[in-house]
Amino acid sequence: MGKELSIALLAIAVVGLLHSTGAMETHVVGDKIGWVVPPGGQYAYESWAAMHHFAVGDLLVFNFTNGDQDVARVTKEAFDNCNSTDPITLKTTSPANFTLNTTGEYYFIGTKDKHCELGQKLATNVTAEHGSPAPSPAPRGPVTYVVGDKLGWLVPGGEQAYAAWAYGKTFIVGDTLVFNIVNGTQDDVALVTKPAYENCTTNSTIAVYKNSPVSILLNTSGEHFFISTYDRHCLLGQKLAINVTSSTAQPPSGSMAPSSPTPHGTSGPGAAHAPFSSAPSRIGSGYFTFLLIAHKAFLYIKEGMTVTISKNQKVLQVFGQRNKKGSRKKTGAT
């Protein structure tokens, strides 16, 4: 009887161990892109992390070029300030593996020159084991979001920049968007309809705000669209689309009211923005890879255009010099 009980307990332990092991996941940071200085800035790895669920027992794998890159686990303060002087752990050989063995936040940065400042940094939040029931989230109060964070509101390297910033964030009625206009009097932010957003139509706006910082209270659910009305700014990526969901949270009496808009073009259907579908938009798992590839392509094309222009300038200079020599010969002959 005692032997049978021991076997039964051993079987239960083995099954439990197998279940725990099978539940662990391996996350390759950045997927195929790996651990690099991302052209999209810190939003690149923020977007990647937003698409994954990290639990106790999971493994993070950092793939990078030895000698050119490294990865350090650091404190939150060191992460925020890109301080690599006293890391918790530093790994210089790829692949670098980190086991997430406790719940809470983990912070990683690249310690090479300016790599962290340029966006080679990752923050993850580790929850309990996979499959464990998540506690019911407590209702949150209104949140103020600074659009683009430190980047501010400007012409970025393509529309993916603000899409990456918005990805993973939850906007609810009562929240506030703050646009810090970087270019001062040479820029603005406009609330527009979806067709105007998609086509970058600047002469048909709902409201236009010019005085930075611009604070806009999200008082209706649905999709909200923002662009810059200045020449080609929207076409170059200065545009933001968000989806606002309803909530029982009441905005505090001290919430910032929207800045006073100035008339611009033909107004839309009244001051109230008619809400679109409140269903949250979904971005596929390949979004992070697309973001980095798009930025690399943008930089590659820009660099190629510069080289081509330089070559053409040299050709024109040589051609002009030859013409001058020919003119001198003709003048001497006469």
UniProtKB/TrEMBL annotation:
One of its GO terms (cellular component) is plasma membrane. GO terms for molecular function: electron transfer activity. Residues 257-272 have a biased composition (Low complexity). Keywords: Disulfide bond, Glycoprotein, Signal. Pfam families: Cu_bind_like. Coiled coil: none annotated. Residues 1-23 form the signal peptide. It comes from the Eukaryota. Residues 25-128, 143-246 form the Phytocyanin domain. The keyword Membrane does not apply. Residues 247-275 are annotated as: Disordered. This is Phytocyanin domain-containing protein. It comes from Malus domestica (Apple). The lineage of its organism: Eukaryota, Viridiplantae, Streptophyta, Embryophyta, Tracheophyta.
